[in-house]
Amino acid sequence: xxxxCPTLCSRHTGSRTRGIQRYYRRQERYLECVCEDDAVxxxxxDPEAESPDEIAWDDHLTxxxxxxxVVMLGLKILAAYWSHSMSIxxxxxDSFMDISAGSIIWVTMRSxxxxxxxxxxxxxxxxxxxxxxxxxxxxxxxxFMVIYESGNACIENTLDPGVxxxxxxxxxxxxxxxxxxxxxxxxxxxxxxxxxxxxxxxxMITNVTxxxxxxxxxxxxxxxxxxxxxxxxxxxxxxxxxTAKEQIPLLIxxxxxxxxxxxxxxxxxxxxDRIHAIDMVYAYHMGDKFLVELHVVxxxxxxxxxxxxxxxxxxxxxxxxxxxxxxxxxxxYELDGDEHLKKFN
Length: 345
Hints:
- Helices cover about 70% and strands about 10% of the residues.
- It is mainly alpha-helical.
- Helix 2 (about 50-85) runs antiparallel to helix 5 (about 165-185) and helix 5 packs antiparallel against helix 6 (about 190-220).
- The radius of gyration is 27 Å and the shape is elongated.
């Protein structure tokens, strides 16, 4: 006698359905990527490339955001000085570090553009990831100091937030300006503007939290002010910890996803009929982009000239892909696996 459980069956069916849906979404995304690769290799214009108007909007919004951040930093310093609020001080630290982080990244990008190819033959694009990691560490440390000072003020009973109309006006004005910038950035579908939009949203959240903490601490419960500072600093710490964790795999050479390796293998297999098989494919991070090593198998009787030409044209094709920094193609006449002396697995 068999007894069925409707709840268990429905859960199993629902889980299976979601798995099938995820599978088809991955397949659709893979086919889209294949079409994009074919367009790149055929030197077709990229339909997702930014137009001159979009580039101009990116530039204008970036400059406007920087100007607003500088102005708001000055106003927040005044608000923090007059209010003695730990919540508002936490937003001052956030604004100052945002401007400092942007300056560090800008200097880093300038240094990358001026790098000498003789000193860095494969480029120094990982310098950007190092800069982001360092900025993350500084941001995390600075906000831990805010938490420490807020806790110390609670212990020593030196909390005395005083929020007047001027202080409230500064934070409300800053939040309104950030809201306008957020809407403008969200309307532009380019990657730089989407990043700016996320930054504006984070600033809106921290401004509103600081304003509520400072106001409630001034009018009703004094400990709401350090709690607001804890929330703002904790929110910033969590975001920058995530950012730091994202940079580490890019610096230590994490392997590419199986889907990306499949895309490279597909291009190599279809490149030339004289390529009989793909022996090995390595793709691993070298900064934001990938370094690719391909071991292809060709006829042992093929001339050196022909094998070289096939390998070189394949290398050129792979390096056209926007996610590839450098590609090396090794030609062989048999399937013998990894030939490196130092193996890491």
